[in-house]
Design goal:
Layout (H helix, E strand, L loop, with lengths): L1 H112 L29 H38 L10 E4 L2 E4 L6 E4 L2 E4 L5 E3 L4 E9 L3 E9 L2 E11 L6 E2 L4 E5 L9 E8 L2 E3 L2 H11 L1
Antiparallel strand pairs: 1-4, 2-3, 4-11, 5-10, 6-7, 6-9, 7-8, 8-10, 8-11, 11-12
Helix pairs in contact: 1-2
Length: about 325
């Protein structure tokens, strides 16, 4: 009986110990679970933060990378635009230099045509300029200022070219008009030896019509054109000997006869005072002289007024 009681008591104690240990084990497991959950939560939050930070860092890097690429693109575009602008300015500068060369050539031509004193206008040298130094510090041109200056210079050059072109036309027409005006003697040296009109024929002594003026001089001296024109005859005519005929327009023709030597050919364009032949005595002639005629529409007219016109113009 006693054994049974002791056995029963021992069994009761063992059951309580087992429940206690089970309770402690469950409590420990619960604590471990709570601890694991807390640690896991903290680790999860840390991982989330780290992931967010990584994403943020990638975004920052991407943004900076994009910004740098945009800046590089902008710099490349700016360089290209600057290069294109420089190319355009260089092209405009080349065109302006060509225009200035034409202006220089035109200026030299006008100086020559207007018979200005040599050296009065020197188009081969830069114009003389000067002045005191400004107290304001000088500034370099920027691209916009340079473009504006080139534009103004181009307009000025175009205006000057038009003005000089008009002046050139006026001078050319004036020179052509003066070239076409019959005036002066057909010799540089010599004297009038026979008048226009009736005279005694030097070979027969009879009264005969003389259709020109005779200018005597040294054999071989110059016979010159009294006006600019085109040679329409250069050869031998019966009675005239070696002869040159020059057409001057408006039906006017001058004839130079008894030449020793002819220096021009048919079709040549001659200038006023150009030597066209040498004084001689070919043909029906008594000595070295030039027989000078003026024909209007094929009919002889008095050369006297044209010779006197030169004297009047000189006066």
């Amino acid at each position: 009986m006693r054994m049974d009681s002791h056995t029963s008591t021992t069994a009761a104690v063992s059951a309580r110990d087992i429940r206690r240990w089970i309770f402690l084990a469950l409590s420990l497991m619960a604590a471990l679970c709570l601890l694991s959950f807390s640690v896991g939560q903290q680790l999860g939050e840390k991982a989330v933060v780290e992931a967010q930070n990584a994403v943020l860092e990638r975004q920052v890097v991407q943004n900076w990378t994009q910004t740098l690429e945009d800046q590089a693109t902008a710099i490349a575009v700016t360089r290209q635009q600057y290069s294109q602008q420089m190319d355009m300015l260089t092209l405009r500068l080349g065109e302006l230099q060509s225009r200035l060369l034409r202006l220089d050539a035109l200026g030299q031509r006008l100086t020559s045509m207007s018979e200005l004193p040599e050296g009065e206008f020197d188009f081969d040298s830069l114009p003389s300029v000067g002045g005191p130094e400004d107290v304001i510090p000088p500034e370099s041109f920027n691209l916009a200022d340079l473009d504006a200056s080139l534009s103004r210079l181009e307009l000025q050059a175009e205006s000057r070219q038009q003005q000089l072109g008009v002046l050139s036309d006026v001078l050319v027409h004036d020179k052509i008009a003066r070239q076409q005006v019959l005036a002066g003697k057909p010799v540089r040296t010599g004297w009038l030896s026979s008048q226009y009109g009736f005279r005694s024929d030097p070979f027969t002594g009879r009264r005969a019509w003389h259709n020109g003026l005779d200018f005597a001089g040294k054999a071989g001296s110059d016979i010159i054109a009294v006006a600019g024109g085109v040679v329409i005859f250069a050869g031998t005519r019966y009675g005239y000997g070696n002869t040159v005929e020059i057409a001057h327009g408006d039906g006017l023709v001058t004839r130079y006869a008894h030449c020793k030597e002819i220096l021009v050919s048919v079709g040549d364009v001659v200038q006023k005072d150009q030597t066209v032949a040498l004084l001689g005595s070919s043909g029906r002639s008594t000595g070295p002289h030039v027989h000078f005629e003026v024909l209007q529409d094929g009919k002889g007219v008095s050369p006297q007024k044209y010779v006197q016109r030169a004297t009047a113009r000189a006066g």
